[in-house]
Amino acid sequence: MNAGHICQRRVIMVRPTDDLVKASQLMREEHIGYLVVVEPTLQEGGWVPVGVLTDRDIVVSVVAREADPRMLRVGDVMTQKPVTVLAEDSIADALGEMRRIGVRRLPVLGDGGVIAGVISLDDVLNAIAQDMGNAAAAINRERAIETALRP
Fold first, then answer.
1. What is the model's pTM?
2. CATH classification of 3-149 is 3.10.580.10, yes or no?
3. Distance, CA of 129 to CA of 131 (rounded, Å)
4. What confidence score (pLDDT) does residue 4 get?
5. Per-residue model confidence (pLDDT) at position 51
6. d(CA 24, CA 58)
């Protein structure tokens, strides 16, 4: 299993030139705290991540500094050059990158470096939990078969 298998494919994206207030409203409407900031590629319909915008970015860069959010664009606040993982990267590699830079989410890139999804700690934990459940079920099944064969 790799990052591409467990990532969320529905990615909420904004452009660097988008209004920061509208981006914040989008976060509220979608009940998320993370937007991938993209630019179009030469490929038809492809988008390349150039940054990420988190609710924390807005608090630290705007609210805490008492800046006027109506005067700002996404590109003024976003974290530029986001760390990404490839869809074929292992879950362990994605988790290692999250730990290395201290984040809970990473953009996942597909062919040509275009955005393919977002992987989060929740996605990783769900995959681990599912694997552990499958392992427990295998052990229980083995025990049941052994009991039936050798009463």
1. 0.84
2. yes
3. 5
4. 94
5. 97
6. 8
Spatial distance between the Cα atoms of 115 and 133, rounded to a whole number of angstroms: 31
Question: How many CB atoms sit inside 10 A of residue 87's CB?
Answer: 16
* Cβ within 8 Å of residue 14, ≥6 positions away: 23, 26, 35, 36, 37, 38, 53, 74
> What is the residue extent of each domain of the chain?
3-149
Check residue 45 and report its DSSP letter.
Answer: T
CA distance 139 to 137: 5
pLDDT of residue 110: 93
> Rounded to whole angstroms, what are the CA distances from 120 to 6, 69, 114, 126?
9, 27, 18, 10
97-124 per-position pLDDT tens digit: 999 999 999 999 998 889 999 999 999 9
* Residues belonging to the chain: 151
Alpha helices (H) along 7-90:
20-30, 55-58, 74-77
Regions in the chain scoring below 50 on pLDDT: none
Buried b (16+ CB within 10 A) or exposed e, 63-76: eeeeeebeebbbbe
Record the tokens describing residue 59, joined without a space.
């608090």
pLDDT of residue 97: 95
